[in-house]
Amino acid sequence: MLFQFFKKKKKGSSITDLSFLQTDMHSHLVPGVDDGADSVEASLTMLEGFAAMGYKKVITTPHIRPDYFPNTKETLAAGFSKLQAALETSDLKLEVEYAAEYFVDFDFLKKLETEELLTFSGNHLLIELSTFAPAPNLYDIVFQLRIKGYQPILAHPERYLYYSDLKDFVKLKDFGCLFQTNILSLAGHYGKEVKDLSQKLLKKGMVDLLGSDMHHVRHLESLKELSMENDKVMKLISNHQFLNSTL
Ligand SMILES: [Fe+2]
Fold it and tell me: How far is the CA of 214 from the centre of ligand 1 (A)?
């Protein structure tokens, strides 16, 4: 089931049109800095894929996570400059920027107090949580972020299955947090529970942004084939409005 979207493209079929979104704001395309693109070539392949699906702008968001991906502004700037150099010699018609996806752990508040965080489209800041256990101080963090003028966006809330009750999500939204759902979550790429929760959040009007969370070419292929493999998801998406095009 998980691999149903990896099938070869059917002859004569077209790739998914996601042009209405205009901007993708969650992916891992800075080469060699996290578990995303491992080379400039891989980054370019995925960016070409975004352009083919109709996107105009990609804001890529490498992990900053002290335990696994201890990136800093400097490591990300260096990685992005390699990609930028390759983009300058390519004929890709796509605006490409970078920010980061910050992992919220016990140290995050300290980070917030001591440094300026990487944002996009003004003050937008992408945060992620452990998929195993909630961060005990999450509401405080969201509150502090708002006080400091950031607009927090929670990456893929549907993957935090410990929030089984929608009340937790409602509370987060009340604190001023925006939600970004992975398009592939809606299609079942991360399992049935994640799919069900993502669709529930979407139907309740709680999803502000859609993202690819693209790490590798398999994600790209899954997205490109979505429209012919899962028309239901495309219809579901088209019934809602998202903030992507405002970024
Ligand atoms: Fe991500």
Answer: 7
